[in-house]
Task: inverse folding
């Protein structure tokens, strides 16, 4: 940790947030505010026969697809536009929006909602991978329930398997995960200056602008989106706010009054997207020297009833499918399936955690099958700089995994503890190695986003920063200021960076994909350099910078061949556990993390990312059970959907290894998702070492451990 | 439309209860959750509500001695924090109470409320069953005392009449040398129970003189079998040790849990029996 920029500063929003002064969407005052609530499907798959409505008193409205202007359409333009704004004639999942009920008095809105009766004719729903693949009840999507399918291949897998002296197979499954951001979903649509303004707790103001414009059939410039301080998101406010914003905008367009759509907690857990469940089968062939010569992977992710971003999630899952290893002959088939579950969507990691969990557990199982040390076996197969990746490109990163392993081994005493716990009846330790591609897949930053940032010299020696990426708890309001201030030679507090407003800031792209610092931060750094050069032209002088993809990176999107990501963050986690043979509960006794994120823009903020990401991932791996019962989430209260408390896990001992990236600000790479990736397999391996049985699925519940020990 | 009442004292409360039969609300930590509605609207109470948490006459914890028995009397509005902080609170009850939710909730929630909520997963109830707690019930012009096992008749159901109030809980303070309360929750704090177990027992002259074994969240009410406990009275430690497999067998017929969103029937039963076995082994080594 040597870079000067890494020296921590006080977060710009620390005082305001700790003091409780920050205004969130629910705190805003609007004159003549109307309250909206959704009429939602109570069936997973059904025809709507009839909707019986009471008489609506004056000032109360029932808004549905018939209220969409003729220029618009009943589609939510996300990555795909298959998700309907309002369900018409049939419903595809529990919670699907049928209508918005709105009016000035919440109780009356609720009473009206309760008087509405929807008559359904039930159809046979599909919930599981097996249901989807067998097209139970008829295809939910297309003619085969496959949203998308890919095949990645390097080398010659079939020939290599012929030479294998040993073959090991395993099937790995992961479940839904709820984001449980502190602030629930919330948007207010207002009619201001003869146009629609959406105030939104969101990650991507320009996504909302685009989807609302398409739904209403108006130019994007006719829609204004203002981000309100966002109390956590984790991917849950990437696309999902579009699902609220579009029906909300239809309502505002009709009533020309401000309308609030703010979710209660139970509503939020019950009726928002979750992380994609996955089922991944891996077959590995080994030669007589215990080297992996072939690997065949079959990856399934459950997209739910609509595709939304599922195809991109599937891409990440398979692009991270062989983990940090150099496998000469590897093949990955990936399929995203449609079911009648709530549509799955973005969640920190975006498919990578699923792929990485499977490959890490599998590597551990192969080592176990061979009677080898799990870490030694994995380290022997580490990918190195210039090795060929699963997308037939060279690994451009300087891979520092060996150095990082030495560091974590020193911190955690991993190697000696592994030996010590071999015969221990209750203790175990596990390790996992991961990487995470920063930014959009392939050339997406160029082909899809083309991020723009703007800066301006202001009065009083200050500079304005205009970007569309948002603070959502990750510290961006502070780190972006540090990046700009460094180039301008100003104090970070002299950079003005307000919550983005699409009428003011250029589109620098969404706040996701571990791109904010690496991609947008680099543009900010370059833009600040330009502004510095013009600084003496006086107050009001502006500078702009536009994304340009590095020339040396090539990409073929249709076949997913070439440089899958501009760069990778790298990580190793070690987790130590002790299990209770009476209750089968697991106590975590140690957590260590070493990361290569290029350079940390602020060491304390990055410690926060490490601790938060690791603990969130440990929740996913252990207690965050989210099951379906007839298509509805069973754990839909905070009492039943449990996330870790400070008593559930000890402190995360974190270390950063510097490895500057030339296209990152001060050398920084993506970090926000990487920190989620390693803990689940490290935890599961620790538990399997403690109980002496292999773990294939997460969450690893006490119930599952009891079953394994039978 | 429901009404709300705020009586000035216990007498007033009993009169209101007799006349209008409102739902008593002390800390509100269960009821406000049960009847929650869209935030910004009123909770969906199905009947009128009478606030009782402020009634000072019931905000006490005291010891009463009569003949040779000492009884801890916990007033109807004593909070879980009051119970946890009282030096005379039996160890298992203190442990049970501290396993409930978080400090902020325990400062508001009352022990009486926890009992009247009558959840099979009520952590304090599991301990109170083992402690032979007695519920003191009052109404205008009368009172009665009912053992907790008879007070609770099913999930959310009690024998409390619509004109009655629970005004105190009496716990006989008996000698008890081997005590255990274990809660298996969904996480380490602020968690609801998958199951809970309480064991209290005492030896006299090397033989088991008293024993109570209770199980929470494994049936429609807390499970306690006085019949099976009787079979253990009079045993020495080594006799108990030899008997453990038989005891586990006996209990496996009375513990009949269900699957729900928190755990599975198989897990609940197995872990309940594991906790029983662990406790009995510990007990058998004491004598």
Result:
């Amino acid at each position: 940790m040597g870079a000067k920029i890494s020296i921590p500063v006080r977060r710009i929003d620390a005082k305001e947030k700790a003091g409780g002064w920050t205004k969130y969407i629910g705190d805003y005052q609007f004159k003549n505010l109307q309250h909206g609530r959704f009429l939602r499907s109570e069936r997973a798959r059904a025809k709507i026969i009839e909707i019986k409505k009471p008489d609506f008193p004056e000032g109360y409205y029932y808004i549905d697809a018939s209220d969409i202007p003729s220029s618009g359409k009943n589609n939510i333009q996300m990555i795909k536009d298959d998700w309907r704004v309002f369900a018409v004639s049939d419903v595809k999942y529990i919670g699907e929006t049928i209508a918005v009920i709105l009016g000035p008095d919440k109780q009356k809105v609720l009473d009206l909602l309760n008087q509405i009766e929807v008559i359904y004719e039930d159809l046979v729903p599909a919930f599981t991978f097996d249901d989807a693949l067998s097209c139970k009840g008829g295809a939910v999507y297309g003619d085969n329930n496959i949203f998308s399918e890919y095949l990645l291949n390097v080398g010659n897998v079939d020939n290599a398997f012929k030479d294998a002296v040993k073959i090991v197979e395993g099937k790995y499954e992961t479940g839904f995960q709820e984001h449980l951001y502190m602030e629930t979903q919330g948007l207010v649509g207002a009619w201001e200056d003869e146009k629609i303004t959406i105030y939104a707790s969101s990650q991507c103001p320009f996504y909302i602008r685009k989807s609302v414009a398409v739904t209403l059939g108006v130019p994007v410039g006719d829609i204004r989106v203002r981000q309100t301080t966002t109390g956590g998101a984790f991917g849950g406010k990437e696309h999902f706010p579009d699902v609220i914003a579009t029906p909300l905008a239809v309502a505002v367009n009709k009533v020309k009054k401000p309308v609030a759509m703010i979710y209660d907690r139970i509503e939020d857990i019950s009726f928002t997207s979750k992380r994609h469940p996955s089922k991944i089968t891996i077959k590995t062939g080994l030669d007589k020297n215990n080297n992996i010569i072939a690997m065949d992977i079959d990856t399934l992710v459950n997209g739910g009833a609509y595709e939304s971003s599922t195809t991109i999630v599937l891409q990440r899952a398979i692009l991270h499918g062989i983990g940090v290893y150099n496998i000469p002959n590897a093949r990955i088939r990936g399929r995203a399936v449609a079911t009648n579950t709530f549509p799955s969507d973005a969640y920190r990691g975006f498919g990578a955690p699923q792929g990485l969990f499977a490959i890490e557990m599998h590597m551990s199982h192969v080592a176990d099958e061979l009677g080898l040390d799990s870490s030694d076996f994995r380290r022997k197969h580490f990918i190195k700089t210039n090795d060929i990746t699963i997308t037939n490109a060279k690994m451009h990163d300087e891979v520092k995994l060996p150095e990082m392993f030495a560091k974590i081994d020193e911190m955690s005493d991993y190697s000696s503890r592994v030996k010590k716990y071999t015969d221990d009846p209750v203790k175990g330790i596990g390790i996992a190695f991961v990487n995470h591609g920063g930014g959009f897949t392939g050339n997406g930053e160029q082909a899809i986003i083309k991020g723009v940032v703007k800066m301006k010299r202001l009065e009083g020696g200050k500079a304005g920063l205009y970007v569309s990426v948002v603070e959502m708890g990750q510290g961006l309001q502070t780190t972006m200021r540090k990046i700009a201030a460094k180039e301008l030679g100003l104090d970070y507090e002299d950079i003005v960076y307000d919550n983005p407003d699409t009428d003011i800031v250029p589109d620098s792209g969404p706040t996701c994909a571990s791109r904010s610092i690496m991609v947008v931060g680099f543009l900010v750094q370059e833009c600040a350099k330009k502004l510095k050069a013009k600084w003496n032209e006086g107050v009001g002088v502006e500078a702009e910078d536009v994304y340009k993809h590095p020339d040396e990176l090539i990409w073929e999107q249709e076949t997913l061949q070439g440089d899958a990501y501009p760069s990778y963050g790298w990580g190793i986690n070690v987790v130590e556990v002790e299990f209770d043979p009476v209750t089968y509960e697991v106590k975590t006794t140690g957590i260590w993390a070493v990361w290569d994120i290029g350079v940390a823009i602020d060491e304390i903020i990055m410690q926060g990312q490490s601790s938060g990401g690791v603990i969130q991932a440990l929740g996913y791996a252990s207690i965050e059970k989210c099951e379906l019962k007839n298509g509805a989430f069973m754990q839909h209260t905070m009492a039943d959907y449990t996330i870790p408390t400070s008593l559930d896990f000890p402190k995360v001992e974190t270390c950063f290894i510097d490895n500057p990236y030339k296209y990152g600000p001060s050398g920084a790479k993506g970090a926000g998702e990487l920190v989620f990736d390693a803990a689940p397999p490290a935890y599961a391996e620790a538990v399997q070492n403690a109980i002496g049985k292999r773990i294939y699925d997460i969450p690893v519940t006490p119930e599952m451990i009891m079953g394994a020990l039978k | 439309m429901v009404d709300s009442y705020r009586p000035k004292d216990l007498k007033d409360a009993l009169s209101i209860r007799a006349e209008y039969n409102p739902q008593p609300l002390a800390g509100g930590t269960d009821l406000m959750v049960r009847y929650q509605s869209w935030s910004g609207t009123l909770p969906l109470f199905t009947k009128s509500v009478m606030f009782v948490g402020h009634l000072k006459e019931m905000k006490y914890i005291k010891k009463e001695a009569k003949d040779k028995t000492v009884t801890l009397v916990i007033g109807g509005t004593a909070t879980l924090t009051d119970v946890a902080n009282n030096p005379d609170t039996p160890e298992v009850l203190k442990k049970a109470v501290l396993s409930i939710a978080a400090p902020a909730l325990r400062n508001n929630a009352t022990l009486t409320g926890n009992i009247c909520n009558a959840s099979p997963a009520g952590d304090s109830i599991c301990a109170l069953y083992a402690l032979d707690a007695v519920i003191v019930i009052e109404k205008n012009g009368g009172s009665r005392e009912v053992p907790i096992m008879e007070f609770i008749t099913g999930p959310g159901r009690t024998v409390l009449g619509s004109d009655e109030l629970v005004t105190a809980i009496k716990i006989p303070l008996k000698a008890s040398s081997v005590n255990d309360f274990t809660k298996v929750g969904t996480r380490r704090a602020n968690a609801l129970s998958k199951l809970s177990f309480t064991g209290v027992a005492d030896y006299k002259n090397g033989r088991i003189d008293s024993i109570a074994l209770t199980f929470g969240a494994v049936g429609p009410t807390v499970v306690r079998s006085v019949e099976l406990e009787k079979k253990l009275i009079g045993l020495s430690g080594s006799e108990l040790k030899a008997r453990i497999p038989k005891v586990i067998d006996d209990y496996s017929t009375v513990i009949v849990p269900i699957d729900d969103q928190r755990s599975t029937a198989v897990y609940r039963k197995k872990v309940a029996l594991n906790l029983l076995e662990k406790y009995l082994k510990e007990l058998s080594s004491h004598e």
